[in-house]
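To close the section, here is one more complete example, presented without commentary so you can practise reading it yourself. The ligand is coenzyme A.
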Amino acid sequence: MNTLTFEPVRTAEQIKEMTDLAAIIWHQHFRTILSEGQIDYMVDKFQSAHAVAEQLANQGYQYFMLRLDDRLIGFIGVVEQPEEKKLFLSKLYIEKSFRGRGYASRAFAFLAKLCREKGYTAVWLTVNRFNYDTIAIYERKGFQTVRTQIADIGQGYVMDDYVMEADVEAMAGWK
Ligand SMILES: CC(C)(COP(=O)(O)OP(=O)(O)OC[C@H]1O[C@@H](n2cnc3c(N)ncnc32)[C@H](O)[C@@H]1OP(=O)(O)O)[C@@H](O)C(=O)NCCC(=O)NCCS
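Output:
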């Protein structure tokens, strides 16, 4: 039996390990959705070691690496919003060869437990409007589209997203 753990990311070594995986997943997955130039730009701006270190230090982010025994198979990044009683799920990535085996659902269960402990009632996220398979997975986990959002991220690039939100109980399959 393999054991899945959620390892909090704190050290420079962990950040490097996680952001190396992020770069691989981004280049594999978003090549049919975004230009190579935009992927490079977004990886540097949001998922490079220096960007993640800044998010952890000053932007309220928490990252957890998913480890299957010793192997890094994915990661999640969240921001708690206690005033709104919500959790922002900023990052959710599973390495390609480990997809479709329920590990994202395990991550949603982990987040639901965190929300229940803290009294948060909803989880929200943004997803590229053309990231169809992922949107279908989010819908399966109880997320509904709240609105569309086009965000200018500089250098002529935009993020063309849906904002989606789920009731925690529905996301966890508790109701
Ligand atoms: C999105 C992602 C994290 C999902 O991980 P995964 O390991 O493939 O997901 P799981 O196997 O845990 O499946 C999650 C749920 O979706 C369901 N599901 C899987 N594929 C589905 C599909 N095409 N349509 C509908 N539901 C689907 C599963 O049955 C499971 O539901 P259940 O546990 O309630 O039965 C992963 O595909 C990924 O990293 N994608 C590329 C990067 C990305 O788009 N990240 C998100 C950026 S916003």
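Once you have examined the tokens, check your reading against these statements. The mean pLDDT is 97. The longest helix spans residues 12-29.
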